[in-house]
Amino acid sequence: MGARGTLPLPPKDLSIVLFYLAHDPDPEIKASAESSLMNLPYAIQKTLLESTDTHPLIMDFYARRLDQESGLLETIALNRVTHDETIELLARIPSKTLVEIIANNQTRILRHPNIVDILGNNPLCSQATIERILHFISLETGIKPKGAPPPPPTKEAPQHPPQESAMEQDELPPPEEEYPPEGEAPQEELPEYMQGDEYPWMEQDEIPDHWAMADLPDEFMSDYDRDLTDEEKLNLSRQIASMNVADKIKMALLGNKEARGILVKDSNKIVAGAVLSSPKLTDQEVDEISRSRSVSDEIIRQIASSNEWTRNYNTKVNLVNNPKTPVPISIRFLNFLSKRDIHLISKSKNVPSPVASAARKLIQKRETPKA
Description:
Layout (H helix, E strand, L loop, with lengths): L10 H11 L5 H12 L3 H9 L5 H8 L8 H7 L5 H8 L4 H8 L2 H6 L2 H6 L7 H15 L88 H12 L3 H10 L2 H7 L5 H8 L6 H9 L5 H8 L8 H9 L5 H8 L4 H9 L5 H15 L4
Helix pairs in contact: 1-2, 3-5, 5-7, 10-14, 11-13, 12-14, 15-17, 17-18, 18-20, 19-20
């Protein structure tokens, strides 16, 4: 009767009975209890998952089985008694709403940096979200980051009105859609069984200071006055690869040029983005990054969308020649290049064909005598 969910118990007690029986060694009882727990009425499930009196293991049970379309995963993410490892699971799901809810919970991120690592690899973690995470991490560590580059301009508000248009339809893609901040989880007092040592992750007043500025290795703090050997570069790369995400972000913000050169190519978007927020980043480094084909498309887009960084003529040339630059942005920058560079681009086999074609059209337009 318990496994079938037919005992006359209040919903909270029934959920505990079903969860316990869902781990019964008898496979028939186990399967029946799991089915009953998952088939509780939606209103009862929502009430359970909203309550701070629900055991974290029951929250985790549902997080691993509920359909993404149910809307209840967001409820689990908002509940402050949900275990941080359950939040790790939710952070992997490609859902903008879940990503925003998790990224807005600064307390979790500061006490459990692995969440940042997972969010940084989620394809739906937007640039705006990355900048927000880096902002409060910088506040926690006392680092004053370089101003974040603005989002790509819309058609109605162009950054650089072109002197001549290479193609009438040229425009930047619209900025990514923003989700409004989600509501806060209920601020009820934690139940007595969660206030002891059994659930240390819920201690709100003793958050581990993962982001405090520890002493970073000397070889990453001062710029070298010479070119490094291949072996030295390999050793530095290995050291950084062994670091956790918190140390990588601190290194990206405060480390030397060599560290930034390695970390800007990191597969984690938040780590790579931290390099562009470093107060020590120089225009020369930005110029080098804009030329690189080893960095992510998002890093190239950030550089291309910054008025400050694209004032540099060489950076604009690099961006147009970099196949990772979005085609509309490359075409827009053609208008600011010299005749010689446009000719080279028109014949280049390393740029996308629409960019080379636009360069040829621009040459033809400029060379056609005005009537």
